[in-house]
Each structure stands twice: as structure tokens, then as C-alpha cells.
Amino acid sequence: MLDQAVYGGVNAAVLTPMDADLAPDIALMAEHCRWLLANGCDGLGILGTTGEATSFSVAERIAVMEGLVAAGIPAAKLLPGAGSPALTDSVALAKAARGLGCPGVLLLPPFYYKNPSEEGLFAWFAEVIGRTGPGLLVYLYHFPQQSAVPFSLGLIERLIDAFPGVIKGVKDSSGDYANMKAMIDAFAARGFEVYSGSDEFLARILHDGGAGAITAAANVTCVAGRAVVRAYRAGDRAAEEAAQAVLTATRRVATSVPLIAGLRELVARRTGTPAWRRIRPPNMPLPPEAVAPFLAAFDATGIAGLGRAA
Description:
Helix content: 40-55%
Structural class: alpha/beta
Largest sheet: 8 strands, parallel
Radius of gyration: 18 Å
Order of helices and strands: EHEHEHEHEHHEHEHEHHHH
């Protein structure tokens, strides 16, 4: 599946830098995107959870998409998040992505109303797809800890049956590998691409027929992810396991603090740009006393041996 998938391999769930007014800093984001593509990322998941998309208006999110493409970031590498509780907002975001030439969008379920019926969820996705029109792939975003609205295998099957060639894959951020494997077993033969939302499963999901990963930590660990994929392709299991061990260790450090704030500290250090620490409330920066221990723990993972990524 890796080499047939549209976004196969390592994809960063890209952070959104902000200016002094807490508006998206598109020039700084484009610079970071170029670095990610040069240092091991196969694609860029923008405007997702890590990118704080739900803290931005539809106009701000569209401006980010347009600004990145205008800055020379290839639209073919972008997987924008188009999720919103408002159906028409998701349609507007999806149409904007399609108009820029992005192959697909990542769609959360409508997440404000809890315990919606499968029929209601199917109807919501059918409306978004129908109103958006042809020419855009849809990737489902399974993150029940955040959205409180999971995707069942039955719903996924209904959507694939109803919209063949449109419902193209899933990002599973649940941390439940058994669920990822169940989706691969059920749907990979139909061209459905399953991506892990956690770096620790990258090698495992490739061997099981998944498409790769779309992860927050790739903002700083992309060289380790690239090493895993290269070793997998080469059939070098020892090198793959060694790189995966580093990738898993960095993931665990990254999630030992509030993830977005910690990643911002790492990127600020790599770039020498304090502006990376800006974050839109209710998210907050790391407390000053937490920064040095966090950076030291990250460095102790051995990632420098694969080429420093932070």
C-alpha cells in the first residue's frame, strides 16, 4: 500500500505559527513546510489538531491554504483539514482545497452533537461530498478522544460503497492499533489508505498493509520517520527496528508534555525563532521551568544519530 497511496509514507501534522496578533504567520509556516519536505516528509497535513485549526475561522484557514500554495508549497503535498461541526463550513474548506489542487482533505465527523446515529453521520458526509462536487478525495479523521464521535467499520463500509473512489482513507489517532489493523483487513484491498496518527506504529502499519503515518511529532522527528521508511523499502529489518525505536522514544517524550506547546519549543530551538512559542488560547506555552528538562529528554532519545531534526 505504501507506494500506491496518495500520501504514502511520513506526513507531518503541521504546526501553525502565529504572529504577534495570533494570526497565522504564513511566511514562517511556508518556511517550516519547506524544511519538512526536505527532511523526510512525504506530505503535509495542515490545519488539523496540531495545527489548531478549530481555533481559526474559515477565512483564516482558507488564507493559510492559499498562502502556502502562493509561497511555493506544492498543493499535491497538502492534506488540509476541512472538519467543522457546520456542514457548510466543511464544504467551503473542501472546495477551497480542491480549487488549489490539493488531492484530498481530512474530515472530522461533526463533533458538537454527541452520540449521533450512524444514519445521521452518513447523511452529513453525503451532504458534504455532494455539495463539494467531484475531484477531491476524502480522508476520514478518527480521533474519538478529541471529537467524541468515532467511525465504526460499518459506517466506513457504507461510505466506501456509496462514494467509491472518493472515500479514500483514514487517519486513526485513537492509539488503538487493533482498530487500525481491522480497517486495513476490511478495506485495504479496496484501495482504502490507513494512516496511523502515532509515530510508534509506523513500521508496524507498513508491514500490515497500511499507508504510513500522519503525525504531530513529525514536525521534529521527520528524519527518524524517513529512516524507518527507507529501511522498510530496503528490507533491512535491523535498521528499521533501530530507527523505529528512536521514533517511538521521541514520540513518548513529545507526549510527556502538552504536545503542541512542546513541539513549538523544539521548533523554536531548531530555528532560533522565538515566535514559534506563540500559541492561541486556550492552548498555552510550556511553563519556563518545564522547557529545559523536556529538551534534554528529547535529545536523550538518540535522534541526533539519525540527523538532528529539532
